[in-house]
């Protein structure tokens, strides 16, 4: 290999680290509010915010408060919100029918946000778990998570969300064939501009624990999600999943969780060169918050270092509960 630098003592890599300005000048990655997608939890009621015990600093917001969060996103330069519903037990059943009710919580929240702050994007998850009394992302029969029957439900769900004004549909269920079904349904229903961000490589992870508290699906879940979410041992399989989702019509892809799967993020971006996102999931956020609360880590530096890692790995953006805090910190620099 041709040497890239003179050997020591003429070559001295520390020259490029001597001062803040030269470090900025040669920095390879950058983080801006425009790289962030802010996940928020929505609940029924008015003018209320309820803390989520396992996610310090994160609250379940009533729709009016969610609109205010969207206004905050706009003022901070955060391009997009991801909305997740906290569903009351009474609205859950084994068919997850609330998922495609055009008056469900996320559809109403989407309409309210798009009416008040149209310049902020709205992303909605397509998966049955918030509405399914079995807590699974798919329909369950005799203990088995059914693939093709679930696709029928996901199609109705995605159409209801797109008709409510969602800009991005993000299928997070890991059923086979779901991207193709949604893309065809959007096309046939004259919704060609709705973007699909596929949770293409989504692993069966313990790091989703706090999220399941936040949406109230953890208690309901029977068993685990290993028959549809990916095995943490696999990377080649992630590349196959991404290839399938792109071939079926996804515009963008996601790897989830984030930091423990940074090798997957890097491999996906290098192989496909498509818009690639990572989800810094609830458990990753909770780890940093817990350590910071104990005085064991500097919260803001741990936040920044974890987020810049995604950009360095090649991600175009990150879904993170830190979004507003990170955007404020970046603005204050
Ligand atoms: C629903 C969904 C989950 C997350 C996003 N969408 C949980 C799961 O699959 O069990 C997790 C997000 C997080 O942990 O922050 N399918």
Write the layout of secondary structure elements.
Layout: H1 20-26, E1 36-43, E2 49-51, E3 59-62, H2 63-76, E4 80-85, H3 105-116, E5 121-126, E6 140-141, E7 144-145, H4 147-164, E8 168-171, H5 178-188, E9 195-202, H6 209-215, H7 236-247, E10 252-256, H8 262-272, E11 276-280, H9 282-293, H10 299-312, E12 317-320, H11 323-332
Parallel strand pairs: 1-3, 1-4, 1-12, 4-5, 5-8, 8-9, 9-10, 10-11, 11-12
Antiparallel strand pairs: 2-3, 6-7
Helix pairs in contact: 2-3, 4-5, 7-8
This protein binds ligand PBG.
Ligand PBG is lined by residues 125, 127, 129, 137, 172, 208, 211-212, 225, 281-282.
Give the tags:
alpha/beta, TIM Barrel, 8-stranded parallel β-barrel, two-stranded antiparallel sheet, globular, binds ligand PBG
């Amino acid at each position: 290999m041709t040497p890239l630098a003179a050997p020591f003592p003429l070559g001295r890599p520390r020259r490029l680290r001597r001062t803040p300005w030269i470090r900025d000048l040669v920095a390879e990655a950058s983080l801006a509010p425009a790289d962030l997608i802010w996940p928020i939890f929505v609940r029924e009621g008015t003018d209320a915010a309820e803390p989520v015990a396992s996610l310090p600093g994160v609250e379940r917001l009533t729709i009016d408060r969610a609109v205010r969060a969207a206004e905050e996103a706009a003022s901070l330069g955060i391009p997009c919100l991801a909305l997740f519903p906290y569903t009351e037990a009474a609205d859950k059943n084994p068919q997850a029918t609330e998922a495609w009710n055009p008056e469900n919580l996320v559809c109403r929240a989407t309409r309210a946000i798009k009416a008040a702050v149209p310049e902020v994007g709205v992303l909605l998850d397509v998966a049955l778990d918030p509405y399914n009394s079995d807590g699974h992302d798919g329909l369950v029969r005799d203990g088995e998570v059914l693939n093709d029957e679930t696709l029928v439900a996901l199609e109705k769900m995605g159409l209801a969300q797109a008709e409510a004004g969602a800009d991005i549909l993000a299928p997070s269920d890991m059923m086979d064939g779901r991207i193709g079904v949604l893309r065809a349904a959007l096309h046939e229903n004259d919704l060609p501009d709705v973007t699909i961000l596929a949770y293409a490589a989504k692993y069966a992870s313990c790091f989703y624990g706090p999220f399941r508290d936040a949406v109230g699906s953890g208690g309901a879940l029977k068993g685990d999600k290993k028959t549809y979410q990916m095995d943490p041992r696999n990377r080649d399989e992630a590349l196959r999943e991404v290839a399938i989702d792109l071939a079926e019509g996804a515009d963008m892809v996601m790897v989830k969780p984030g930091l423990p799967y940074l090798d997957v993020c890097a491999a996906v971006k290098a192989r496909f060169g498509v818009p690639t996102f990572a989800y810094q999931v609830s458990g990753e956020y909770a780890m940093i918050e817990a350590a910071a609360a104990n005085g064991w880590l500097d919260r803001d530096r741990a936040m920044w270092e974890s987020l810049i890692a995604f950009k360095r790995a090649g991600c175009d953006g990150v879904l993170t509960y830190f979004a507003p805090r990170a955007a404020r910190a970046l603005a204050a620099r």
